[in-house]
């Protein structure tokens, strides 16, 4: 016991296997435990980084998918707008054609009335000519 105290004063200690150590057995045990806890912490940190990495990858994929869908929606909207413009243009062309045909019909109606009047006048002239004979 006295030898142990003298060694202890010199900073030397015996462990449970009676090997000579520089650290006190309790300090050595705490150091080993701290080393294990640090190793576990590093492992958990690495696992956390892996999880975060895969989460970031997933979010990136979702962002790309969302961007793709947005582009499709914009394309569809633009297509609908152009179709609507085409229909509008077609409608205007047809309205113009209808107006043109109505004017033509009015010209033909006036021409028909004029011809009917001429025919009536000619028939009247023929009747008078026949009755004069």
UniProtKB/TrEMBL annotation:
It is found in: Cell projection, Cilium. GO terms for biological process: cilium assembly; protein localization to cilium. Residues 80-111 form a coiled coil. One of its GO terms (cellular component) is cytoplasm. Pfam families: IFT20 (PF14931). Keywords: Cell projection, Coiled coil. InterPro entries: FT20. Signal peptide: none annotated. Its main location: other. PANTHER family: INTRAFLAGELLAR TRANSPORT PROTEIN 20 HOMOLOG. This is IFT20 protein. The gene is Ift20.
